[in-house]
């Protein structure tokens, strides 16, 4: 889990409610809904709880309420229906007194969206925001005369998006209940509803991962895991070319949409050469690959993997440590003079390391050299840093950082990128890309927010990477000139999601015109990015990295205004982040 570096999202609770509405509705009985001509909710007085909603969701819901409801109320007591993304009673009570909530219909935002699409109020029972209110909501149903509710699940519908879709919206600094919505320019907000991927236009036989749909878990995941062990071993031994060949094969298999049971199926796939064909065949026959088994049980592989799980330790350092006779992390601690029990060497306050990031990604480029400082920090914190971060905590971290940032500079937007954005249920770290509509506000903001988080006890360690300078189109290496900080973060104990675990949090600040390029670059996965760069170069003579897109022959720089425009610029079909999992 590298110490490395970034969409967000309204709430888990909203997502959950939406998903359950989906389950209940049953697709076969889904009525056709079409946008209504007049007001959809002429008798409904609505109140919207802004907490846990991002700016785009707030403006969308306010728009729907203003256009379709009898009234959008300023006070919950004046409303019949309360729309909220909050899913827990305790949290709701911070905004609405429980006694009041019991006399209202408290529903998820999806109820409003679906009712508007339906042209009239839908029954509440599939959109209950707080389960404790289930009984009272049915009684409080003002529109559909259900006392008791006559609406059966089969008569309801759901346009609920998946939880992932909800979670991919950008965070804007007006996410806190206290801040008013900010006028964020539409181009900095994700499209609502999110764009759909047209799988039929993608091609799993393409040589470029950016033309293939790669789900998080594919039908051949076990095979992919076996091959990835061999890839890891090659990478740890410094056999870069061989490791890349395996990474490419894995990436191609990741996009193959059927379970592989015969070699005929893989004939058309790219990057499956003679050696890998043999391994696939072995897997089809026996369900495993001998070489992968041998690697797994090798002491050397185990030690090298263990060492390189510490951020800052790459293959070369791992091999050197192994050659010194070290085998365990305890031995590494002794070697580096770290005491993880007392953490004395690392808790001395904020550790700042300035570093020009010559290489953007240590993992990708096989670079190390972040110095012993980070190795010591990562070793000292290894127990915490080894624990994966569930999605709800990732989202909370996003909200907390945005709240603090809002105090420094109102009007910022951000997207949680990396594995979270691709739908991973748990992440090794949290990566966030930020911007502000006013480019002049960005410079120095990264350091300021990190300082503030440190003063608030949330950031204990930080390494600032790279100065903030303009994208240099003549650079030949892929480095990213964005201002960023790699930090160790812990949620404040007052947070609902506080688990007392320190987390890796990477903050990347981009000028507004580079925001979507940075979001694409940092959303991953690694092979998806690699092939996007390759595609840009091969097919368009362009250089792409997360800090800029440049045409090589005349150095013209491009500034896509939306994430989709990045794809359009390269004449690629849109691929949702959840289908960009082109690595194992
Ligand atoms: P990571 O945070 O290393 O990876 P991740 O977020 O995909 O997965 P997790 O944190 O859960 O392990 O990197 C964030 C993104 O940065 C990654 O998705 C794509 C990009 N990246 C590269 O393009 N090349 C690299 O070598 C690395 C490390 C990241
Ligand atoms: Mg990550």
From TrEMBL:
EC number: 2.7.7.7
Any single Gene Ontology cellular-component annotation: nucleus
Entries under Gene3D superfamilies matching the protein: 5' to 3' exonuclease, C-terminal subdomain, Beta Polymerase, domain 2, DNA polymerase beta, N-terminal domain-like, DNA polymerase, thumb domain
Keywords, alphabetical: DNA damage, DNA repair, DNA replication, DNA synthesis, DNA-binding, DNA-directed DNA polymerase, Lyase, Nucleotidyltransferase, Transferase
GO biological process: DNA replication; double-strand break repair via nonhomologous end joining
Residues annotated as domain BRCT: 36-129
Residue segments, region Disordered: 1-38, 170-190
GO terms for MF: DNA binding; DNA-directed DNA polymerase activity; lyase activity
Protein name: DNA-directed DNA polymerase
């Amino acid at each position: 889990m590298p110490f490395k570096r970034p969409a967000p999202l309204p709430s888990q609770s909203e997502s959950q409610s939406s998903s359950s509405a989906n389950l209940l509705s049953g697709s076969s009985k889904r009525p056709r809904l079409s946008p209504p001509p007049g007001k959809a909710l002429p008798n409904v007085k609505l109140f919207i709880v802004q907490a846990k909603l991002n700016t785009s969701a707030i403006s969308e819901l306010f728009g729907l309420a203003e256009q379709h409801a009898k009234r959008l109320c300023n006070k919950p007591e004046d409303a019949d229906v309360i729309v909220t993304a909050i899913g827990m009673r305790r949290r709701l009570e911070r905004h609405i007194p429980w006694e009041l909530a019991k006399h209202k219909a408290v529903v998820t935002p999806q109820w409003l969206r679906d009712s508007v699409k339906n042209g009239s109020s839908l029954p509440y029972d599939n959109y209950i925001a707080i389960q404790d209110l289930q009984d009272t909501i049915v009684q409080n149903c003002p529109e559909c005369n259900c006392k008791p509710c006559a609406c059966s699940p089969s008569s309801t519908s759901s346009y609920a998006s998946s939880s992932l879709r909800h979670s991919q919206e950008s965070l804007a600094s007006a996410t806190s209940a206290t801040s008013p919505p900010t006028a964020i320019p539409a181009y900095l907000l994700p499209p609502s509803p999110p764009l759909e991927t047209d799988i039929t236009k993608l091609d799993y036989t393409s040589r470029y991962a950016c033309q293939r749909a790669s789900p998080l878990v594919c039908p051949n995941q076990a095979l992919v895991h076996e091959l990835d062990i061999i890839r890891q071993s090659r990478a740890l031994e410094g056999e870069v070319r061989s490791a890349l060949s395996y990474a490419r094969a894995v990436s191609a298999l990741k996009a193959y949409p059927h379970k592989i049971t015969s070699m005929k199926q893989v004939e058309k796939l790219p990057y499956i050469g003679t050696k890998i064909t043999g391994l696939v065949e072995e897997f089809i026959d026996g369900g495993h690959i001998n070489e992968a088994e041998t690697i797994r049980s090798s002491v050397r592989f185990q030690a090298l993997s263990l060492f390189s799980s510490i951020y800052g330790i790459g293959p070369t350092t791992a091999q050197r440590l192994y050659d010194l006779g070290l085998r365990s992390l305890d031995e590494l601690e002794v070697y580096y003079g770290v005491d993880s029990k007392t953490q004395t060497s690392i808790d001395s306050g904020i550790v700042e390391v300035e570093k020009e990031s010559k290489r953007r990604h240590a993992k990708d480029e096989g670079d190390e050299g972040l110095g012993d400082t980070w190795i010591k920090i990562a070793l000292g914190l290894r127990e915490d840093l080894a624990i994966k971060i569930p999605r709800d905590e990732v989202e909370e971290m996003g909200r907390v950082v945005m709240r603090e940032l809002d105090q420094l500079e109102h009007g910022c937007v951000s997207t949680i990128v990396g594995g979270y954005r691709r739908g991973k249920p748990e992440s090794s770290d949290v990566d966030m890309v930020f911007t502000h509509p006013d480019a002049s506000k960005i410079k120095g903001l990264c350091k300021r927010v990190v300082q503030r988080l440190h003063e608030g006890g949330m950031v204990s360690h930080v390494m600032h990477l790279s100065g903030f300078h303009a994208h240099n189109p003549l650079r030949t290496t892929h480095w990213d000139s964005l201002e960023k900080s790699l930090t160790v973060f812990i949620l404040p104990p007052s947070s609902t999601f506080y688990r007392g675990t320190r987390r890796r949090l990477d903050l990347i600040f981009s000028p507004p015109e580079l925001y979507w390029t940075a979001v694409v670059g940092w959303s991953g996965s690694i092979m998806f990015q690699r092939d996007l760069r390759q595609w840009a170069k091969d097919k368009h003579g362009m250089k792409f990295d997360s800090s800029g897109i440049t045409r090589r022959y005349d150095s013209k720089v491009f500034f896509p205004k939306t994430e989709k425009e990045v794809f359009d610029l390269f004449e690629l079909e849109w691929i949702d982040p959840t289908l960009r999992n082109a690595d194992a």
